[in-house]
Amino acid sequence: MAATTQRATDRGPVWLARASAGAALALTGTGLVFQALTRSTSVPLDFGSREAASVTALVYLALPVLGMLVATRQRQQPLAWVFIATGSTMALWVFADGYAVYSLLTSHGSLPGGGLAAWLANWIWIPGWALGGLLLLLFPYGRFPSKRWRPLGWVLVAGGLIFSAASMLVEGGLANYTFVDNPVGLVAADAAVVKLVGTLAMLGLGLVVIASLVPRARRATGDERQQYKWVSYAATVVVGTMAVGWTLFGLGIRNMWVENATLAVAGLLPIAAAIAVLKFRLYDIDVVINKTLVYGALASFVTAVYVAVVVGLGAAFGSTGERDLPLSIAATALVAVAFQPARQRVQTAVNRLVYGKRASPYEVLANFSQRMGELLGNREVLDQTAQLLGEATGAARAEVWLRSGEVVRAVACWPDSSCSTEALALDQAEDWLAERASLSVPVRQRGELLGALTVETRAGESVRPVEVRLASDLAAQAAHVLGNVRLTEELVRRLEDLRASRQRLVSAQDEERRRLERNLHDGAQQHLVALRVHLGLAAAAIDEGPEQVRMLLEESQQVAAEALQNLRDLAHGIYPPLLADKGLVVAVQVWSQRSPLAVQVYGDEQRRYPQDSEMAVYFCCLEALQNAAKYSEASKIEVHLVDGDEALRFSVEDDGRGFDPATVERGAGLQNMTDRLQALGGDLRIDSSPGRGTRLASDIPHRVGVRA
Fold first, then answer.
1. Using CB atoms within 10 A of its CB, is residue 158 exposed (0-12), middle (13-18) or buried (19+)?
2. H/E segment holding residue 621
3. Which residues 6+ apart lie within 8 Å of 340 measured at CB?
4. 435, containing H or E segment
5. How far apart are CA 263 and CA 49, in angstroms?
6. pLDDT band at 708 (very low <50, low <70, confident <90, very high)
């Protein structure tokens, strides 16, 4: 039972909204019938033709429907009831106006209540104006932006009530229907003065409300900012149209098209607000605003020039029919000459109004230099570059691309800091970016591609020549920035590699010390202990005869020989004596004889190199030969030791099964080779593929010079 009651309570506002909308639709439909019946009736001081009222009714017919939709989707939304109330007041006005005119003028009193209908139509539109202003104050969430806006809301409501009450109670003829005396007139006053004062007051309050949209829109972000754009655009059009229409009407200049358009356009404001509240996400409003303002300003420019030349000069020189043609030709020529410069200036001004302030190219470049001098971090530099590029060109998106090795990646983006992780091949990057972006400017330094600056324009816009020049100038300055960033990142990477290499060398040295300790303990030390024992036994056996002593001494000699060989093997692993005596080529040849594979060594046996270079190449060759014997399944190996003009070059090549260096993880042996070579300025190159064998090679620069 409680659940049923709760559901009924929840559905109550929805049914009330639907009933109110239905009543408004019925009143509007009936009013349109009366408007159609009175379209040929002349009404004194009627703003626009009788068709204008029908157009207004059709426009405002959307308000109660939209209010019902808002109440259905967002039941707690106060704006829904403001929509419905505004639409209902307009529906009452359409019905009362049509009924009064038909009853009193068209049918000459055939229907009763014509005077009361005229009285209602005379003031019911005033609450509609007040509700429209209240709608803007409550926009977009149905509450005042802050407490300081509440007094304006109360003044707006109070002003609407006072103006309505005055219009209801002033004696004499009704302000809008002078042919009818007020049936409930209680206050002696001039109805025309009341109407003028009240209208000016309501217009002033309305302008204040519309002006309040500006600071609120500046503080808004995301969806809310887009909603404000809809309402701001509609408010600008409505205010401009009404200013023209009511000014001409007040001056006695009657133009039915202008008056009808004024009434029809008045419906744009609440409709735009309703669309924004329902969040239909029509985000291309920026383009609509931009184009409307540009073409509206240009139309005003053309009109002003033509009127100034033809009317102004014609009046100054006493124009006659014959002189109008030359003046018209002169005005046309002046417009033709000044149109393109005026268009560019108007476009720039509108872009700043719609998209925000854009700095001049000089300001951008000066600001860029200043900021680059203040920033230290690479990330800050790149982010600031993207931001300056985007703000200066008014782009929807700006990106900074940086070369890293043989690929190019997006490293900074604006306004969204999240960039694509896609990496572009260096030889394809320029073409790909040129096709994808609205504007792509490569960044080069001494002919080398460092990266690129890309711009995505807003919908409906194209890149202008001034923006191309600005991006090119910015790219020229950014070359130093990207070059420094690239060098810094390369330095950081090399420092990290050096740190890791040093850590590996320390670990390798510790492991080597443990190995030496273990080998000395298990090998030479045991032989020396045995030698000591044998010598002790020989000393004790002197009394037993020479044969026993000779046998023990021979055994001691054998133990000493084994200890010596063991020590030689240990020394060979530290720095082979043969390498020191005979050189690199001979040492590798001697060691290769231990390999189970056929090894051919090519090189000049007489040539000597710096000690550290010989040792590094020697151990790299040994490691390569051992790996080939273990894993390659090769039949032969070739070792080349070549003395170049600037470097010692070596290679170890087998005809084994090979492997894919990109997928096979490097083991400790290859990593040790890399560390040894990099410590001397070289780098290990691996050329291999499945079924093609393997070739390891490197170049070690001559740092000290070649030894004779």
1. exposed
2. helix 611-627
3. none
4. helix 429-436
5. 11
6. very low
Q: Which two tokens mark 553?
A: 């001494």
Distance CA 247, CA 587 (A): 106
DSSP designation for 251: T
Record the tokens describing residue 112, joined without a space: 């009763």
- Residue 190 sits at φ, ψ, to 5 deg, of -85, 115
Separation CA 176–CA 155 (nearest Å): 25
* CATH dotted code for 11-283: 1.20.1070
Q: What residues are paired with 449 via a beta bridge?
A: 444
Q: Give the chain's mean pLDDT.
A: 74
Residue 163, amino acid: F
Tokens of 210: 């519309």
Q: In angstroms, rounded to a whole number, what is the distance separating the alpha carbons of residues 531 and 702? A: 47
Residue 76 predicted with pLDDT over 80? no
pLDDT at 494 over 60: yes
DSSP labels for 82-113?
HHHHHHHHHHHHHHHHHHHHIIIIISSS-STT
Three-state SS sequence of 531-545:
HHHHHHHHHHCHHHC
Distance (Å, whole) CA 46 – CA 101: 11
- CA–CA dist 220, 206 (Å, integer): 21
Highest mean pLDDT among 354-363, 416-425, 505-514: 416-425
Whose tokens are 């460092």? That residue is 450
* Per-residue confidence (pLDDT) for residue 42, from 0 to 100: 74
Over pLDDT 70: what percentage of the chain?
Answer: 69
Neighbours of 34 (CB within 10 A): 24
Residues 184, 186, 191, 197: what is their CA dihedral angle, to the nearest 10 degrees? Answer: -120
If residue 286 lies in a helix (H) or strand (E), which one and from where to where?
helix 285-306
**pLDDT tens digits for 519-562?**
665 566 666 766 676 677 777 777 777 777 777 777 777 777 77
Q: What is the CATH number of domain 579-701?
A: 3.30.565.10
Using CA atoms, how far apart are residues 89 and 121, in angstroms rounded to an integer?
A: 10
Among residues 617, 606, 638, 625, the alpha carbon closest in space to that of 699 is found at 617
Pick from 442-451, 465-474, 549-558: least confident? 549-558
Helix (H) or strand (E) run with residue 123 in it: helix 114-123
* CA nearest neighbour of 427 among 399, 403, 455, 456: 403
Give CA 82 to chain center in angstroms. Answer: 37
Q: What is the mean pLDDT of residues 487-506?
A: 77
CA 322 to chain centre: 61
Contact 27, 95 (CB under 8 A): yes
Q: What is the domain class of 361-489 according to CATH?
A: alpha beta
Q: Are 18 and 84 in contact (CB under 8 A)?
A: no
Q: Where are the domains of the chain?
A: 11-283, 285-354, 361-489, 579-701
Q: Which of 601, 680, 671, 685 is nearest to 648 (CA)?
A: 680
